[in-house]
Structure formats: C-alpha cells, structure tokens
Amino acid sequence: MRYGSLSDHFTGIVAKRLSAVEADTERSNQHEFNGTGQLRQLLGGERIDRMMARFIWLGGENEGITDDAPVTWYDARERHPTRSEWRLYFQSNAVTEAASAGDLLVVARRPGGDLMFIVAPNGSTLENQIAWLFGLDHGLGAGFRYEGFEGEGDRGLDFVSNYVLEEIGIEPEEPEADRLDEIIARFGTQFPTSRDFSALARASLAEVDPRADADAALLAWIEFEEALFRRLERHIVAARLEAGFLADGAADVDGFLQFSLSVQNRRKSRMGLSLENHVEAVLQALGIRHARGARTEGNSKPDFLFPGMAQ
Length: 311
Description:
- The protein is α+β, with helices and mostly antiparallel strands.
- The protein has 2 domains: 10-155, At1g16640 B3 domain; 177-292, 3-Layer(aba) Sandwich (Restriction Endonuclease), CATH 3.40.91.80.
- Helices cover 38% and strands 19% of the residues.
C-alpha cells in the first residue's frame, strides 16, 4: 500500500539537543536560538513576525502536552550594511516549561510554512521514534542539524511511520480509501471481533503466501488490517460525532471523554491481538505445532506455547 512521502507533511527539519541555557528557565530567561546556517536553510532569509507555531512535548503515553505560541525569525543586525545576525525567538509556553536539558528538539516546517517544535525526553521511546521518522542518528549535539525532504532527501512512509505522525498530531492520508470502504461495508458502524477482522485482512490479500515468505506475509497482513481498521474507525467515530454528546439537553462532557478514551484503548488492545492472530495463521500455514493462550505453571498464559500443552 502507498502511504505517501515525508515531503507530503514537511519541507525539512532542524534537530538538536537542548542545552541547559535553552531548557532551564531557572538558569536563564533566554528564549532564542541562534540563527545558524542550518536554521537559515529551514527558515530562509525573510523575516517572520509573531507567527503562531505548534509546540509539542512527547512525555509518554497519555502524557503529551500541546501548546501554541508565537515565534519570530529576525535579523538582529538588519540595519547594518554588511553584517547579519539571525535569531529565532519563541515565547515561553507549557512545552518549553516541561523541557529539560538533553531533550531532543525538532523544529519542523510544514509545506504551507507552519512551524512545529517537537520535544521528546532524552532516552525515551518516543525520542527514538521521532529520530527514526526523520532519519536522525544518535550523534546530535547542541548545534542544529538540517534535514531536507525534497528530491533525494525524501523518504517513503509506511503504516509504522503513520503511528509516529499521529503522535505529533498529523493525520496521515488513508491509502486506497475506495477499496477499503468496499471491503468494510458489511460491518456498517459496528466493529467485528479481532479474529474476524484479521481473517478478512488475510482473505483480501489472496496473493500473499506465508509459506514463501513468512515475514513478508506477516507484515502485509498487519499493515492491511491496520488500514481496514482505521477506515472503519473513521466511519464509526464520524457517525458518533454527528450524533453529538448531549445529556438532558446539556453538553455531555463525561460521555465525550469516555468515548474518546474507548477509541484510544481499542487502538492499543486491537494491535496486540492482530499480531497474535496473524502469527497463528503463519504457524498453521507452516505446520508448526503450538498452543495459543494455554495456561502453564503458576497460571501463566503465554501468547504461544511450543509445541503444545501435552508436550
């Protein structure tokens, strides 16, 4: 399936490790980054006055912070005939207050010119995901590094990339929407069981043979089921939002929050079950003896037991 490219969402980024001066408000009130050559590659040579930018702190599961604040890109020596000194000013906000020295900072520019400031804690899983998405290694220091996504610098996206994009609030385009709608039409606005959904994904990819390449089959099935799930989820969530959240004529805030939480929880639990379903199909196709979900010593329940309970 085609998921587009990184250039569909970003023209380029700069990335660095935050220094103590930049991150610790108790040590410094500095709210500027020096306009290095890398920043000028990203932002160009035209002044930007108090443009609202999106700041995102990826603190962990359900711990993210999003805030909007103005930024200004200016030449502090614009009146000097021969010298320039560019700086990127940002207003303090909830994200900059949460950041710490050593955290990963990515300043990303969208195709429309909007800016995103993405901060991920040093050593966190989300930091690794952001670094992987943008092709960053672990050699970043206090200086900015530029990555452009035009031409040879562009990177194709897959369903894993889409997960990371969603973490920073970007909803990727759904591939093959018409085909997916045709397949899921039978379900209306109800989710099928995980087993049924996994079986449907495999049946829809009749050309995939796990006996020829088990790894490729597993990835193809998981990817296609994820696309089916997200498309059906979109229809179900849209229908619920259109119905509205009212209780006794007033806005039902608790009902909305519960529904939102159920959407997030379903995404997490379903992915684990999807993987188990497709692994089981691979094992069956290859004739590998196993037991799924068997109870063992101490009432433990591994996903799979080889070769089985009797052995």
